[in-house]
Amino acid sequence: MDDCIFCKIVRGDIPCRKVYDDGELLAFHDIHPAAKVHFMLIPKTHMDSLLEAEDSHAPLLGRMLVLAPRLAREQGLNNGFRTVINTGKGGGQEVFHLHIHIIGDDVSPVVG
Ligand code: 5GP
Ligand code: ZN
Hints:
alpha+beta, HIT family, subunit A, five-stranded antiparallel sheet, binds guanosine-5'-monophosphate, binds zinc ion, Histidine_triad_HIT, HIT-like, catalytic activity
């Protein structure tokens, strides 16, 4: 996907403030944060939205949901957080590369 913003971030063509990176998934801070902590978790392989989800995506989507609380805690969200997946035009999606927003204001101070 040549002109997908998030694919450009995956390729390193557009910089981001990285939260997490592995072979399959990438997380980075939202450029317009809606809270003290606001980052996105995306699959590195392009997928427009949850509307395209099929059974074969279950392991990937499962990994994303399992990783979300770990990354949230690492960002100081120890008391919980919001997850948002805007899906399709009707769901208010603006960037058509599947992503989970992880959002929270209840940030614990970092000790040490
Ligand atoms: P959506 O409405 O599609 O769920 O949300 C897209 C999100 O991507 C928005 O919160 C917006 O601020 C964020 N965003 C758009 N372009 C960029 C970018 O170039 N870098 C980063 N880090 N976030 C972006
Ligand atoms: Zn993409």
